[in-house]
Amino acid sequence: MLLTFGPDRQTREFTCDCCNAPIERAWDFIYADGAPHAVYFANCYHHTDRDHDAWIDVIFGTWVEGPDQWSDHVAFACRVGPVMGQTTPASTLVTAGLAHPDGPLFGRKLDRKAALQHPRLNEFWKVSDFVLENDPLVRGHIYGH
Q1: 93 to each of 20, 49, 69, 103, 111, how far by Cα in Å?
Q2: Secondary structure letter of residue 69 according to DSSP
Q3: pLDDT one-digit tens code per residue, 55-64
Q4: β-strand 3-5 against 35-45: which pairing, if any?
Q5: If DSSP codes are grouped into helix, strand and coil, which group holds residue 134?
Q6: Which helix H or strand E contains 81, and what residues bound it?
Q7: pLDDT tens per residue, range 102-140
Q8: Residue 13 gets which letter from DSSP?
Q9: What is the CA radius of gyration of the chain?
Q10: Are 94 and 80 in contact (CB under 8 A)?
């Protein structure tokens, strides 16, 4: 499966509620073999009082129809950043969609326990790895280049 970004990648900057530091967000479609496969939202936090990290939400489901056809959407998420005892950043499953309202776009927001048991978990890791390696905002934030 060949993953690529969609044609309409977007970014936005806003302010963190907890420390007034900037948050940079990138989002786009992820295509698999030329067809819409998922949507991702990556929030890159520049906290003033804790580690810089990124939270990546990935939503799988039907994309060719409107919101009334999104009943199959399921969302995964991970936090990527420093972990005690490791010299490189690590990804950890977290509850999906914490920074986003409930609704048809995110569909069923999986918590860590549900995500670990979900049949699409391997797809999620492939997409999140693709975002980490190829989205310039996320890559630069986590790896410094």
Answers
A1: 25, 22, 27, 21, 8
A2: G
A3: 999 999 998 7
A4: unpaired
A5: helix
A6: strand 74-81
A7: 999 999 999 999 999 999 999 999 999 999 999 999 999
A8: E
A9: 15
A10: no
- Whether 145 shows a pLDDT value over 80: the answer reads no
The predicted-structure confidence for 90-110, as pLDDT tens digits, reads as follows 999 999 999 888 999 999 999
d(CA 40, CA 46): 20
Contact 81, 142 (CB under 8 A): yes
Say if CB 119 and CB 103 are below 8 A apart. Answer: no
The Cα–Cα gap between 1 and 144 comes to: 28
C-beta pairs of 77-84 under 8 Å, 24+ apart in sequence:
77/110, 77/115, 78/124, 78/128, 79/53, 79/54, 79/55, 80/53, 80/54, 80/55, 80/56, 80/128, 80/132, 80/138, 80/142, 81/51, 81/52, 81/53, 81/54, 81/142, 82/51, 82/53
Summarised one tens digit per residue, pLDDT across range 35-57 is: 999 999 999 998 877 788 999 99
Written as six digits, the tokens of 119 are 């049949």
